Structure prediction request, 640 residues.
Amino acid sequence: MSRKLTTEQLRQILEESDFELSDNDTDSSGRNSDVQDEPDFVDSDGGLQEPSIFADDDINDPDFDPGEFSRSNIVTEAFYGDYGRNSPEDSPDTVINPPQPVTSSVSQPLRPRRWTAGEVMRLSPQEINNIDEENGWKQEVLPLSRSPYTASSTLHIQGEHSVGSIYRKIVTDEVLDLMVTQTNLYAIQIKQNTNISMHSRMNRWTDVTKADIMKFIGLYMLMGIVQFPTLESHWKLDAIYYHPIFHNVNMSYNRFSSILRCWHFVDNEAPRDPQERLYKIKPLLDLVINNWKSLHTPGECIVIDESMMPFRGRISFRQYNPSKAHKYGLKIYKLCTEEGFVWNYVIYIGRDPEIADLDKPGSVVVQLCDGLLDTGRVVVCDNFYNSVGLAKYLLQRKTDLCGTLRVNRVDLPWAIKIKKMGPKKGELVARQKDNVTVLKWRDKRDVAMISTCHDASMQMSSGYRPISKPTAVLFYNDRKKGIDLSDQLSSYYDPKRKSLAWYKKIALDVLICASVTNATLLYQKLHPTANRKSRKTILQAQQEIIREFLLLDNSSDTNANTLSSPRPSTSSITNQHFLSKIQRKEDNKIIRKRCNGCYEDLRKDGTSWETAAKQVKRVDTECLQCKKTFCLPCFKNKHN
Prediction:
């Protein structure tokens, strides 16, 4: 509170400041002849004006904040108190002129005060509310109206379709032709640029066809259902690993391994942009993602989140996220529908796109939603993406935003940032500005939300123990599960292995995990009236696609008879099998060959073919009936 000064006290202040004007020491013009320069706070009329207590260097400093001084009224109270208005005890000769506003040579308007968290923490709740209101955040939260939804959820396929036929609309002939062409081309490049061993499988390479690629994809899908510790285990004859399909589809393990090694999607020797880090997989991604978009248009609500593909190899854009189940891997941004259909798929390559007036996470949201904005949709994101700037940008594009929020984001009201919620559940604080609502609600912990289509109203939740929750929280919980459902369905029969190259892992994730899930969800949307028992599961859908790609009979009885029958026993013809010496060469030299029985035993024990070829016995005896070489112990084991 300012204090009043009497005339004598004011005159004493002026005497101590050495700027008192005496009536006896003035010239004809009324100026003091002894004083050459008048002080800054004495005007031409001899009255007092507000002194400039700021140096010119301070005023020109861009970080200088004169509002900090004007709020505390330092100048007015220290020099004038309540003077500036006439008092009854003042004589006409001692009337003090009111202080004049501060003037400076700076033409720019003064910037508002930048408060720090420490300063705001020392303020009262009313003062904090006043600061928020100065910044436009109002305590009164009004209901928000939504932009009219002008699009519609559309399936671009009609009629009766099986899961296999829907999947073939995703993995089209164009996708298969790309893999056939680039795989054969890469095999040629390997032979030309690599010093191949004489025992290498590549010496027996023959160009793949579309049927070979389909069979290759079908076998990889089957490996997601029938899982063995190694790829080679699927072709073993051991009773533990023996599976008839792998021995009856006319593709050996050597052929499968050769195709896997040469599996490619782009010409490595073609000119490319050095900044494009995804050049090895980009042609395949573009084709498959465009096929996803051509089959289905999302509805009113779309969900955005990221997933982690496990990968521990050396690559510049590998990520570490301790909150994920797979801490090391490639980060993938996905846009899904509420049901889990993956509509867009973007791989993080160490740098995100940047859009003016948006941060990098907000720019990712706009990139994923390309083609879906300006139609009145609602975008649901978590706190990694959401900000006030993103909400304002989407409102300009006729799109709403709802999701959780980090309280350290810029442009948030102080009441949301520093509000300490009590231990009791249900406490709520909310602010609203320009159709953007931000709130903090106390559950087991503080939950901050942002929404452009919800107010601060509460609603009872559904479940075993209904409780009152904000409408924005209930909306977010109900819609956000779409991305989690997609990841869950894709992980059930995932065939990816640790030893794969990064671009081959992405190819399997796109061609098998995501595409099979999308095909299954589209089949369910085409048959909405089917009861729960007759609806296709991911396992049933994957089995149907495997049968189509491997050209298996759809009859379970026929498959059981043709594929599961045991191999013929040799015990009934043992008497017709006998060992005989291998005929010598013309120069009477003995011919020795590897024992076939010893070699198979070593391979069943997990020994590599190179090590087994070195360790196996060399014998000069063979079975004329089997046309194979055996040592005596192996011959007895095989025929008795």
